[in-house]
């Protein structure tokens, strides 16, 4: 039963992080928000995760087109992980 609650907390934290990814992507479009205290704090929280996807072929594609798709890929990966954790938690009910 404890594992069920731990999985639910992890799933909830992944959901919050996904929301932060969306907020960070929106603030990157608005320079006055990206350079604010909140924008810099979000960058410190989000950029280490997104840098995993900015390297390699995805990063080269974003550099050549000027469109950074790493937040979309990051959210997709987080949702896959969240789904796996929720499926795991249902086995411990």
Automatic annotation (TrEMBL):
Keywords: Membrane, Transmembrane, Transmembrane helix
Transmembrane segments annotated in the record for this chain: 12-34, 61-81
GO-annotated cellular components: membrane
Pfam hit, one: CCB3_YggT
Protein name: YggT family protein
UniProt source species: Candidatus Lactobacillus pullistercoris
